[in-house]
Amino acid sequence: MQNSQENFGIYIHFPFCRRKCIYCDFYSVGERLADWEAFARAVENEFSALSLPSGVFPSLYMGGGTPSLAPAELISRFRRMIPVEVGEFTIEVNPDDVTEEKARAWREAGVNRVSMGIQTLNDDELKAIGRRHTADQAEKAYYILRKYFSNISLDLIFGLPGQTLSSLSATLDRFIEMRPEHISAYSLMYEERTALTRMRDSGKVEEIPDEDSVEMFRLVTSKLKEAGYERYEISNYALPGYRSHHNSNYWKGIPYIGLGPSAHSYDGDRTRRYNLPDLALYIKEYGDQIKEYGDHIKEYEFLSEEELREEMIMTRLRMIEGLDLLEFEDRFGKEERISLEKRAKPYLSSGDLIYMHDHIALSESGVMISDEIISELF
């Protein structure tokens, strides 16, 4: 890591799940393998090995896996591990893990933002994707969290097996009634090597047509906009003042540190580093001593100039502010900016891209074909 960069976001990956959701491709193992003390020591040793500069860490994010399975003291322990101020402190939770005792303990540990994976408030749809909770449990969990937290994010997935515009609308109405500060709404993805993809390929699950998914996205955006939510990134909506700082920093290219098996780090320049998705190897590498590099568990990627350029286009266009052309020119040169604007011209003419104060950004229609536009701009 470059010591000149002081404002790192920190991500800690909790690789344990009680049961894996059929659509999930994030690294996790069963809860029965959770040796919390060994995991905690390894994370602490990895963090100590980084020898980070003093300063303010703008965000601390605990994701997974299922961080809400962990003993509450472990959340507090990881916060104490970081001896400086932290801005936004988020923990991901599952509804069926939320209790008054845990919510109070998370708050006392310093958590000031909770992200809860509800996905849908239709029980048939929850069963279809293997979620552990019911719609009723999810709402009860939300109102427990509301007693302790003034910044709550809820996850929603559309395009689920058996989902209709009507059932999605009903879920959105209940989300809006609960009024979380932030909503992440994703189209269901059929990732490689997931149970859901195997079920689709064997004919047990039918993938909804693309045009239906587009209509669902339009429904999500229109209902949330009407309710006062701003879509500030392709899949994220927030009430004023409640954008996710942690995720926004990813899209802005700000450096971050990942701790735990499968976690990724970025130095803000051109080096990515990630831990192998292997819990046993991770604990073996870091469990008993501090190792500066952890070479048996880490892999490195050094981004070329072309890869950096493409990544800036892709990540900045995800955000409502779009791509800053002056920043792009400063980083890659005037000729690259001219070339980019030439490739963007057809989409500017069609209205799928728009100019905004030396930025180009996706319009509402452009969001619908964002993959095509971003690919063409490469």
Broad structural category: alpha/beta
Strand content: 15-25%
**Which stretches are poorly predicted, pLDDT < 50 over at least 5 residues?**
1-5
The percent range for helix content is 40-55%
Outline the biggest β-sheet: 9 strands, mixed
Please, what is the average pLDDT?
Answer: 90
- The largest sheet has its strands arranged as 9-10-8-7-6-5-4-1-11
The dominant shape is globular
Task: Give a brief description.
The chain is α/β, with parallel strands linked by helices. Helix content is 41%, strand content 21%.
Structure description:
Helix content is 41%, strand content 21%. By secondary structure, the chain is of the alpha/beta class. Strand 5, helix 3 (100-108) and strand 6 (113-119) form a beta-alpha-beta unit. It is globular. The model is unreliable at 1-5 (pLDDT under 50).
Topology, please?
Layout lengths: L8 E6 L1 E2 L11 E2 L5 H14 L7 E8 L7 H10 L4 E8 L6 H9 L4 E7 L3 H6 L6 H12 L5 E7 L6 H14 L3 E6 L7 H7 L8 H17 L3 E4 L2 E3 L6 H7 L4 E4 L4 E3 L4 E5 L3 H8 L11 E5 L2 H14 L4 E2 H8 L1 H17 L2 E4 L2 E4 L1 H5 L1 H8 L1
Helix pairs in contact: 1-2, 1-10, 2-3, 6-8, 11-15, 12-13
Give the tags.
single chain, 15 helices, 378 residues, globular, 41% helix, 17 strands, disordered N terminus
